[in-house]
C-alpha cells in the first residue's frame, strides 16, 4: 500500500542511503558524496551520453575503490515499482557506461533493494541492460527492507 507521508518516504530513502554508506565503508570504498548525508557532500551529476532524456544523473552515493582504481556508484530502490522505470533504466545505463572503456577499472554500480526483489531485479537487468555491463551492477540486499511485504510503500 502506498503512503502519502512524504516525511516517512524521505526517512526511508535516507535510511537506504545509510545502508549504502555502511556497505561502502565495509567494502573499504572511499565515499566522496552521498545525498542528504552529512558530512559527505552531495554527489556530482554524471553526464548522460544519450540514455532516455539525456539529462545528467545524480547517484545516491559515489565513492572510489582505491584498490581497484575505479569509481563506484550507489542507488537506492525502495520497492519493485522503482526497478524498471524509465528513470531507473537511464540511471543504470549512465552509471554503467561511465568509464566503460577502462576494462577492469570501469565504474561499478551497487543498488540497494529489498531482499525479496533480487530475482526480479536480476531479470530486469538481464532484459534491459547490455550483457557486457552485467558483471558491474551488483544488488545489495537491504537490512532495512527485508521484504516488500513488510514495506509500507509497496503496492
Structure in words:
The protein is of the alpha/beta class. The chain has one domain (6-150). Helices cover 28% and strands 18% of the residues. It has three helices and five strands, in the order αβββαβαβ. A five-stranded mixed sheet has the order 1-2-3-4-5, sandwiched between helices. It is globular, with a radius of gyration of 15 Å. The N and C termini lie close together (4 Å). The relative contact order is 0.18. Mean pLDDT is 88; it is low at 148-155.
**Shape descriptor:** globular
Mean pLDDT: 88
Q: What class do helices, strands and sheet pairing give?
A: alpha/beta
Distance between the termini: 4 Å
Number of helices: 3
Poorly predicted runs: 148-155
Using only CA atoms, what is the Rg? Answer: 15 Å
Total number of strands = 5
Beta percentage is 15-25%
For the record, the count of structural domains works out to 1
Largest sheet descriptor: 5 strands, mixed
Helix and strand element order: HEEEHEHE
Order of strands across the widest beta sheet? Answer: 1-2-3-4-5
* Relative helix content: 25-40%
